[in-house]
Design goal:
Elements: H1 2-31, H2 36-69, H3 79-84, E1 88-98, E2 101-111, E3 132-134, E4 141-144, E5 150-153, E6 159-161
Parallel strand pairs: 1-3
Antiparallel strand pairs: 1-2, 2-4, 4-5, 5-6
């Protein structure tokens, strides 16, 4: 009769071990680098990035319509024009860490928060020094490449989109 107590204790220990393993797997599935929470955050950022790109393209159209009204039918808007309008800030960056590499002495165009009335997001222009910077200083920064494609630096220095330099 005493042997059945031993089997019960072994079954209990194995059950606890299996439950602990399942708990570790579930916690990792939720909070890991590619976990559900990270995927949800990535989806929200990508949605905001899409809205930002749409807002930038609309600002470009508004500028080009302005040029047409002024009689200049061949002028196309550039990122420098968006800087002049106060929509973007031009930042000279000494060290750019992006796409697994490091570049030096580049110009980046960063969104000037609040300058596009239809672009509302919990992600914003965050912390970016005004004229001289290092991308390690960037926190929540939306930016625009010279071809008007967009990118976003998260608070964790994760780059969404493609950062291009000519």
């Amino acid at each position: 009769m005493k042997k059945s107590n031993g089997v019960t204790m072994i079954v209990l220990i194995i059950s606890i071990a299996v439950l602990l393993i399942l708990a570790v797997v579930l916690i990792n599935a939720f909070t890991g680098e590619e976990g559900i929470l990270q995927q949800a955050e990535d989806a929200a950022v990508i949605q905001s990035l899409s809205e930002f790109e749409k807002a930038i393209r609309e600002e470009v159209m508004v500028l080009e319509q302005k040029y047409i009204r002024q009689g200049d039918y061949s002028k196309e808007a550039t990122v420098e024009d968006l800087v002049k309008e106060g929509i973007l800030r031009k930042v000279e960056v000494s060290t750019v860490v992006a796409n697994g590499g490091t570049l030096h002495d580049k110009t980046m165009y960063i969104f000037a928060k609040g300058k596009i009335k239809d672009f509302k997001t919990k992600y914003g222009a965050g912390t970016v020094p005004t004229t001289q910077a290092n991308t390690n200083d960037f926190k929540d920064a939306f930016g625009v490449n010279s071809d008007f494609s967009v990118y976003y630096y998260s608070q964790k220095n994760k780059l969404y989109g493609e950062l291009k330099f000519e």
